[in-house]
From TrEMBL:
SUPFAM superfamilies: CoA-dependent acyltransferases. Its EC number is 2.3.1.20. The keyword Lipid biosynthesis applies. This is diacylglycerol O-acyltransferase. It is an enzyme of class 2 (transferase). It catalyses: an acyl-CoA + a 1,2-diacyl-sn-glycerol = a triacyl-sn-glycerol + CoA. It comes from Ferrimonas marina. Pfam families: WS_DGAT_C (PF06974), WS_DGAT_cat (PF03007). Keywords: Acyltransferase, Glycerol metabolism, Lipid biosynthesis, Lipid metabolism, Transferase. The keyword Acyltransferase applies.
């Protein structure tokens, strides 16, 4: 039996009906013209026939004598249960698809079975077919799930990938090895030395945060549990609703180059502007910036991407409600860069432990109902996943769009996750159905926010060029004549 990592253990222990801790992906497919009729049903039949299921997708949670869950092989995997089929009634529009996706995303996965499902949804207008892949976060995070689906696809229309549940045992063994386990590494001396160093760094960090809270020292890290309480900080109920937005990736990349920031900074700024607009339209005004929980890459510049896992969750303070677009972008850029530098100064391991402690406390507070009395640790979770850069094909059908649908943490009613695919940035927004009226408008606010940021950048660029032109001396033909005569 395989152990769970400390982080994965938290996702299992703190799950409830109101906060199911799985993630989903909504994929839109265009079948080949000659196979368009009946493609969905044929796809379901073919997927169910692919019943050679490999770890970890044939594993279930087992609660042993220690009362800590571990993975163990299931006696059997019922493909009729894990591969689902649903047909939308006419007209089969996007609203109907999102209603169904919200219902599927609302309920917990059955713990008596392997923690994944794949839905095939047909009946969409234009003959498209949708896939909804649902997997527990203890089994795969967003990056891993995206990689698994990409591995199931091909870059050629007539090519075939390896279905994610049929991955090789070697690949899955490598993936498990890269996730530090709670019990399996007790006798690894190098790990003990590393953890000891991280604990020292964690103690230093706690001291810095305490001094910062008392105004005796400054740190660029956000002090936990000091976020403003907003409409986004309502305890979630079970029902979920989703909204989608699709924007060209090149627009984010161009803004990043022009402003000296990263694509992630631009993405955060656009999200912040859209969320602030939603709050203002619903008559909420705060005097403190929103705080987002988001992944932080702790690799140093030039460090190999294949190095050990150095992605952690950090608290990022966004812009103030009155900030103009570029001021907001610069504040977010400086904040994310400062957080990363503070974390690297301590050590990535220490910051990883810090994020485990903070987020573990937030999960525990939500599980015990204490989030009603404590200030929020964060207002929402925002994540950006780098997906495939080339167009893909799944079982002969072209993958048109890939939208991530993530989880809601206790004390939060909104999640924004982005996934880049084939030159597009796909936004997947998830919220509690009854918590945020008019939630779907946030997707429109995202489009408006990106246009406003582009306009502000262009206006500033024109002003800079005009100032440079005015400051340079103007040379006339009369000035040049004496110089030619001397020559």
């Amino acid at each position: 039996m395989a152990n769970l990592s400390l982080l994965d253990l938290g996702f299992v222990l703190f799950e409830s009906d109101a906060t199911p801790l799985h993630i989903s992906g909504l994929v839109l497919l265009t079948p080949p013209k000659e196979e368009a009729i009946g493609f969905g049903r044929a796809l379901v039949t073919e997927l169910k026939a692919s019943d050679q299921v490999q770890p970890p997708f044939n594993q279930v949670l087992h609660w042993g004598l220690t009362r800590l869950p571990r993975w163990q092989p299931a006696a059997s995997v019922d493909m009729d249960f894990h591969i689902r089929h649903s047909s939308l009634p006419a007209p089969g529009d996007m609203h109907q698809l999102l209603e169904l996706a919200g219902r599927i995303h609302s309920y917990r996965l059955d713990r008596s079975r392997p923690l994944w499902e794949l839905w095939v949804i047909d009946g969409l207008v234009g003959g498209q077919v949708a896939l909804l892949f649902k997997v527990h976060h203890a089994l795969a995070d967003g990056v891993r799930a995206t990689d698994l689906f990409a591995r199931s696809c091909s870059t050629e229309p007539d090519g075939l990938g390896q279905l994610f549940w049929q991955g090789s045992a070697r690949d899955d063994a490598t993936a498990r090895k890269n996730r530090e386990t709670l019990l399996g590494n007790l006798f690894d001396l190098s790990l003990w030395r590393r953890q000891l160093g991280a604990s020292v760094g964690l103690a230093k960090l706690a001291g810095k945060l305490a001094l910062n809270a008392a105004d005796l020292a400054q740190t660029r890290l956000k002090i936990p549990f000091t976020a403003p309480r907003t409409p986004f900080n309502v305890s979630p109920d079970r029902a979920r609703t989703v909204a989608l937005c699709d924007l060209p990736l090149r627009r984010f990349s161009r803004l990043a180059k022009l402003t000296g920031s990263t694509t992630n900074d631009v993405m955060l700024t656009v999200c912040d502007m859209a969320l602030q607009r939603y709050l203002q339209l619903h008559n909420w005004q705060g005097d403190k910036p929103l705080v987002a929980l988001m992944p932080i890459n702790l690799r140093k510049e030039g460090e190999m991407e294949t190095a050990c896992n150095k992605i952690s969750l950090g608290l990022v303070e966004l812009g103030r409600s009155e900030d103009p677009p570029l001021v907001r972008l610069h504040a977010i850029r400086d904040g994310t860069a400062g957080i990363k530098q503070e974390a690297l100064d301590l050590s990535p391991d220490a910051y990883y432990q810090y994020s485990i402690v903070v987020n573990g406390l937030a999960l525990a507070a939500g599980r015990l109902g204490l989030n009603h009395y404590l200030p929020p640790a964060t207002n929402m979770l925002i994540s950006n996943i780098h997906g495939p850069t080339e167009p893909l094909y799944f079982m002969g059908a072209k993958v048109e769009q890939m939208f991530p649908l993530s989880l809601l943490l206790p004390g939060q009613t909104l999640n924004v996750t982005l996934l880049s695919y084939a030159g597009q940035m796909h936004f997947g927004l998830v919220c509690c159905r009854r918590s945020l009226p008019g939630f779907e408008a946030i997707a429109e606010h995202l489009q408006q926010a990106l246009a406003e940021l582009e306009q502000a950048t262009l206006t500033t660029l024109v002003q800079v060029l005009q100032e440079q032109a005015e400051s340079e001396p103007v040379t006339t033909p009369d000035d040049e004549a004496p110089a030619r005569e001397r020559a």
